[in-house]
Amino acid sequence: MGSVSRKQPLYGQLVDLLCQKIDNEMEPGDMLPSERDLSETYGLSRTTVRLAMRELEDMGLVTRRHGKGTFVACSSREATNLMGTYSFTEQMRSMGRVPKTRVLEFGVREANKALASKMELSLGEHVIRMRRLRLADDVPMMVESTYLPAQLFMGLTREAVEATPLYDLIEQEYGQRIEVAEEAFCARLTQGDEATLLEVPEDSAVLRMKRVTRNDKNLVIEYTRSVARADQFEYKIAHTR
Question: Per residue in 188-228, pLDDT tens?
Fold first, then answer.
């Protein structure tokens, strides 16, 4: 593996070597050799290679897609500012990535006590509920469960949501002016089918986000719960006095 200090562990030497290859020879989205290939190429145990790949992942240099392999992460990933409204589509386009949405579920239901409280509705009022998988360059990024007051969005269809960004529909088709969005997030592990949908290992760390969006009349027009891949998002908050 070249002349590297004997004090540096073997997996650390491999990390350095792969970092150089990623910086000088590879592009975001390129697939790295498999653990078996790396083991054979550099004469290292699979355990050593696995440790190196895990460190590269922790550094944010690579992403693992379950059943597909390990890929160079997008090094130009930008931070999303929580101080304003958030549009996944706009954010991905601004980064030069191609956004895509898959609607997993779509329907109308009655608001239970918890949902009615969060959306400031009466118990039992109808809400539109949709569950969507958001992708960028065909990489799964987040799973979103979104609720809208049905009375404000009469006629909204699954086909419309699949074809047009939701915020465009809200503002352009339904005349709702988005005034403010409050968003909170925390870290947790994947649950249910989230790991499968996001193509990450079971019990992977993810960001759990909740967003409440209000219009210019201060009415709640959207409540969204999202689960985002921790290796694909970075959040920042600016504090001013």
Answer: 888 889 999 999 888 888 888 889 999 999 999 999 999 98
Q: Is 214 helix (H, G, I), strand (E, B) or coil?
A: strand
DSSP E strands in 111-219: the ranges are 126-136, 139-149, 178-189, 205-215
Q: Give CA–CA dist 233/90, Å, rounded.
A: 14
Does residue 148 have a pLDDT over 90?
A: yes
Residues with Cβ within 8 Å of 116's Cβ and at least 6 positions away in sequence, in order, are: 122, 123, 124, 125
- Please check whether residue 34 is in contact with residue 69, taking contact to mean a CB–CB distance below 8 angstroms: yes
Contact 64, 200 (CB under 8 A): yes
Q: Of 79, 78, 88, 82, which Cα lies nearest the Cα of 180?
A: 82
For range 32-59, the mean pLDDT: 86
Helix (H, G, I), strand (E, B) or coil at 118: helix
CB burial class (10 A; 0-12, 13-18, 19+) of residue 236? exposed
Helices and strands, number each (H, E), in the chain: 8, 10
pLDDT digits (tens, 9 = 90+) for 22-43: 878 888 788 999 999 999 999 9
Distance CA 64, CA 80 (A): 22
